[in-house]
Amino acid sequence: MRGSYHLIVQSAHLKYELDLKRNITVIQGDSATGKTTLADMIREYILNGSDTGITISCKVKCRLIEGNTWKEQLESIVESIVFIDEGNKFVASKEFADAIKNSDNYYVIITRESLNTLPYSVNEIYGIHSSGKYNSLEPVYHSLYRIYGDDECKVSDIKNIIVEDSNSGYQFFKHLSGERINCLSANGKGFF
Amino acid sequence: MLNIYYGDMEDVIYNTSVYFKFNYEKEWMSSPEVIQMIKDVDNSEVLGNGAIDSPVMGIIAPTNLSGGVKTLILIDKVRDKIFNASNCGDNCAGWLLKLAEKDDIVINLRHLMNFGDDEFKIKILNDDVIVSNMNELIRIAGRYV
Asked: Is A59 on the interface with B (CB under 8 A)?
């Protein structure tokens, strides 16, 4: 799969609208913003279809994987948007990173943990905004907002760059920094 | 005091929502502290019969509370287990500090929760060090998460 995917998940009282731009999107943020409710709606729709009254509008299928049998569940999923709710320990595992690398799905992962094994962009970490109230005529509307990466940073403002890596990553940034920016290697996480 | 072990930890209850689903006690919902947690974090009211009135979902069961508030309730009510508090957002941090005022509490965190700008007392179990603000906390906890 490539490019952006627009997704609307809606029930009588709730509406979620998401634009997924890369193969890995992370949703985090405060408690009680509706992250798990979104995953619940996807799960119910997969299990019971239109009987749920939920509609999902997207040009590809949505799926949800969870629990200890995640690998078997993932094996049969292709060209889909795969949701993973909080509480699934496997998202931080190397085994999961390998499985993602070899698949053509997009993934929406709900977690606050650092996923060190996965190559995802800081720009694709979102929280959920909601507006409206239960029992109003319109469903409560949920959309994503970017948690990091909206602040513009001018290259001319950068004085120091600290790179965790001491090998190729450091060499890349050292070369890129030139004479004006001081580039240091942290020699691993311990520096911080 | 609040005691935190950062990073992967053995014998921790990782999926707190599943634990809550099969182990919560109805009486917990009548505790004044739990009622206030639900009001503060989920912006919801506990009704007389233990059901909850949510501004987003309507009338819901305790199992449909947010993952964060369910984890807070477990940390408060189940003291012989250690829970993964990374199921709590930053809007639960104040309650974690509040619960730890009356008792020693041990939690596991797998991310850098923001405990705010005020001074606090948190013991980081990985290094057996007490920190008193976010600047001190990040320098140690950042090595483990």
From this structure: no
The verdict on A162 and A129 lying in the same domain is no
Same domain, A53 and A111: yes
From the list B31, B17, B22, the residue with the least C-alpha distance to B66 is B17
- C-alpha B123, offset from chain centre: 16
Query: How is chain B split into domains, by residue range?
Result: 2-141
CB contact under 8 Å between B87 and A113, yes or no, is no
* Among candidate residues A89, A81, A3, A6, the one with its CA nearest the CA of residue A45: A81
CA separation for the pair A16, A166 (Å, rounded) = 42
Check CB contact under 8 Å for B58 and A30.
no
Tell me which chain A residues have a C-beta less than 8 angstroms from the C-beta of B16.
87
H or E stretch at A47: helix A35-48
Contact between residue B22 and residue B16 where contact means Cβ atoms under 8 Å apart: no
For residue range A20-60, what is the model confidence (pLDDT) as tens digits?
999 999 999 999 999 999 999 999 999 999 999 999 999 99
Q: What is d(CA A137, CA A191) in angstroms, rounded to the nearest whole number?
A: 54
pLDDT tens by residue, A84-143: 999 999 999 999 999 998 899 999 999 999 898 999 998 999 999 988 776 666 788 998
Q: Which domain does A166 fall in, by range?
A: 155-191
A90 shares a domain with A15: yes
The interface predicted TM-score (ipTM) is 0.90
Pair of tokens at residue A149: 């990466």
Q: Say yes or no: B34 contacts chain A, CB-CB below 8 A.
A: no
Q: Given pLDDT bands bounded at 50, 70 and 90, which one contains residue A191?
A: low
